[in-house]
Amino acid sequence: MSCKTIEITSSVPYGTRIYWWLQMRSHQPAEALIKESGQFERHFLAWETVRKGQNPYFENATGFEGYLVGCCRSSSEALEQILGLSRDMLTSVSRLHRFDYRYQSRLLKTLTGELEDPAAMAEWSAQFGAALARLRCNVFCSRQVERFQSDTYQHVYLLPPINYTNHEDGIEQLYVIEIPESPNSAKTFVDANTLNLPDQEAWLVAQSIGKFGHPLVREYLRFSSS
Q1: Among 106, 128, 129, which Cα is nearest to 118's?
Q2: Binning pLDDT at 50, 70 and 90, where does residue 2 land?
Q3: 176: three-class secondary structure by DSSP
């Protein structure tokens, strides 16, 4: 099967926070952070491969779809699974901070990138990890999910590493992914405006939370909490 190569240049999520954290820690050079973060690169590139096109459901995917192949027979089923996952995360953070509305606001603004609050980043990262842990059960229950994951990683392990450069007061990244071309597959575009208000917020979570799987974000949270 032929593949389409996509080259992506963008800002690292929460790159300003990571950049200034590194500037204040001369004993923690950027090269060391990048080297340690390499252990997470393949997982992130696999996530981006699914999100950018290698999934049978959506044009504007989230990344979670790779765990639903074979478990969901249609885009509508996959959407309901993803929205349910996001609703669970929203319910969890709401219950944990039931009366702390200021912190709930910080959580939402950090999720969307308006803020770069370390505590909120750590909390979303934990929610993301728990959601993935639940979905990984599908790999053991479905041969289709297992095969999809295996095929994705076969492509990912041939990709070059992510290249990072400092840019003003942030960090820029360049990475490459390959998407197998499947011209006969029709995918759904999820228009958030057609969803009810609670599901619009749930879809926002699903679309945004994958940034907490970024290698530098994961490594920053690991180092900064130690």
Answers
A1: 106
A2: confident
A3: strand
- DSSP string for residues in 64-85: GGGGTBTTBSSHHHHHHHHHHH
Distance CA 131, CA 87 (A): 11
191 three-class SS: coil
Tokens (6 digits) for 27: 């004993």
Report how far residue 121's alpha carbon sits from residue 110's, in angstroms, rounded to the nearest whole number. Answer: 7
Distance, in Å, from the CA atom of 77 to the CA atom of 119, rounded to the nearest integer, reads 34
Question: How many angstroms separate the Cα of 5 from the Cα of each of 47, 119, 178?
Answer: 15, 36, 4
Q: pTM score, two decimals?
A: 0.92
Report which residue type is found at 19. Answer: Y
Q: Which of 172, 178, 202, 179 minimizes the C-alpha distance to 190? A: 202
Q: What is the pLDDT of residues 73-89, one digit of tens each?
A: 999 999 999 999 999 99
Spatial distance between the Cα atoms of 12 and 175, rounded to a whole number of angstroms = 11
Q: Quick one: which H or E segment has residue 6?
A: strand 3-11
